[in-house]
Design a protein that fits this description.
5-stranded antiparallel beta sheet, binds zinc ion, single chain, Immunoglobulin-like, 8-stranded parallel β-barrel, alpha/beta, 19 strands, 14 helices
């Protein structure tokens, strides 16, 4: 009896540890966020949506594309969709930059002017933004929260646009650096941009736009440190839950790390680089997630370039699955190609936090097929990954499962049906294809081997019936 107790003392904590690791560590960012939320939002008046799905438990929706219809209706359009998306297994929506930009009612938001004008001030030629009014945005965020969805803000802080011209005494040139927005918040002049008396430049400028200097204490205070900073206003007043940082190549990774440490929330950076090692370095420095551009390029070579061997290449999710946000296309790449659904089959069955592009879901691809893949992602795709077979036309991998069954995915880029014997994790078990593409329900051998099949230009996903 005594021995049993001792044994339990050893085994029980190990079991708890294993359970804790598998379920709660969905994403690196999430666990520390919850602690930060507890510490920092005690005194905040914001409605803290406590019933949100954990980010990373499902799939992110990129809820816009380049040049969505102008006219101030986009927030309303999205509001009509959030409940359906949540039902399908989406856990967060990523919105375009929501505040007033230089191009006013025509801007997609990436030329930010007044960070506190969400469509309530008459400046830059309009009151509303391209997407709608401040109230419409707040209504959308409330509806998303009611549907258990987190809302991710697109944060553009490398550059600004729409200022008046002034002479910069540092270099004697005139620059568009005099900002007096109608919100009256975060007024700026040449001191807040490069070059200034303290600092000449940072890691990158964007298209000649005035380049914010995050080394200036005043800029840090206005962007994330003050009570009324951009970050805290977005979080506490507008209700945003997380951050997508635009063009992070344009400044050093500590900026994102500082922001995140100040206000918490899931964070992902757009470090546009196909080198997995560089992406891994950036996520280590910034201590947040990054979009997996390495995976994006390799998938394009595989599914558009018709060589699935490319999937053996280096990707961020293979180095750090907790910090990889995978995607097939986005508002910048905005492309259609034949193997796109196969690429979705890849990211939905593999590690990393997958994103669905609005147009793929709502306009271009088969929504039922995507919903099936989201279901597979949320219910079967757990645990580590082993690649079982690759050639130019075929790719087979298995997920080993954690708190779910795991799966075997078979992707076929050939024009004919394929089949192969593979070693699963299951012995003497009836398995089936959860995509419905194959009606086969084979039984695995005692040695766990089984033959699976896949239709032409398609995929199948196998797990115990
Ligand atoms: Zn600087
Ligand atoms: Zn910069």
């Amino acid at each position: 009896m005594k021995n049993l107790q001792n044994l339990l003392k050893i085994i029980l904590p190990i079991c708890l540890l294993l359970i804790g690791c598998s379920k709660e560590k969905l994403l690196d960012d999430q666990s520390s966020d919850d602690q930060l939320l507890k510490q920092k939002s005690v005194s905040s008046k914001a409605v803290v949506a406590s019933n949100l799905k954990p980010i990373g438990s499902g799939v992110m929706m990129q809820a816009f594309y380049w040049d969505v219809p102008a006219g101030g209706n986009w927030w309303n359009t999205l509001e009509g969709k959030v409940q359906d998306w949540s039902n399908a297994g989406i856990d967060a929506i990523w919105l375009p930059p929501a505040s007033k930009a230089q191009n006013g009612a025509f801007s997609m938001g990436y030329d930010p002017f007044d960070y506190f004008d969400f469509g309530q001030y008459n400046q830059m030629g309009s009151v509303e933004t391209r997407f709608g009014s401040e109230n419409e945005l707040k209504t959308l965020i409330t509806s998303a929260h009611n549907a258990q969805l987190s809302v991710i803000a697109d944060i553009v802080i490398n550059h600004n646009s729409g200022g008046q011209s002034e002479i910069n005494p540092v270099n004697g040139q005139s620059n568009w650096t005099k900002f007096t927005p109608l919100s009256g918040k975060f007024t700026r002049d040449y001191n807040d941009f490069h070059p200034n008396h303290n600092h000449g430049s940072d890691s990158g400028i964007f298209g000649g736009f005035p380049d914010l200097c995050h080394h200036q204490v005043r800029v840090q205070n206005e962007l994330w440190k003050n009570t009324e900073s951009v970050a805290k206003y977005y979080k506490n007043v507008m209700g945003f839950d997380g951050w997508r940082f635009d063009y992070v190549k344009g400044f050093e990774p500590w900026v994102v790390k500082d922001w995140k440490n100040e206000v918490g929330g899931f964070s992902v950076g757009e470090y546009w680089d196909g080198n997995a090692g560089t992406l891994d370095w950036w996520t280590g420095q910034a201590e947040v997630s990054a979009f997996d551009f390495a995976c994006y390029y390799k998938m394009r070579d595989a599914f558009n370039g018709n060589n699935l061997n490319e999937l053996n290449g280096d990707m961020l999710w293979k180095r750090n699955p907790m910090r990889a946000v995978t995607f097939v296309t986005n508002h910048d790449t905005d492309e259609i190609y034949n193997g796109k659904t196969l690429a979705y089959a890849y990211i939905m069955t593999h590690e990393g936090y997958p994103t669905i592009f609005y147009r793929d879901y709502e306009e271009w691809l088969n929504k039922e097929r995507l919903n099936n893949l989201i279901w597979i992602h949320n219910n079967l795709a757990g645990g580590s990954t082993n690649v079982l077979y690759v050639d130019d036309n075929e790719y087979i991998a298995k997920r080993n499962g954690n708190n779910n069954l795991g799966l075997v995915v078979y992707i076929n880029n050939a024009d004919t049906w394929q089949e192969r014997w593979i070693e699963t994790n299951w012995s003497n078990t009836v398995i089936k294809d959860y995509t419905g593409h194959s009606g086969w329900e084979p039984t695995t051998q005692s040695g766990r081997w089984v033959k699976i099949q896949v239709p032409p230009k398609s995929y199948s996903v196998w797990a115990p019936k």
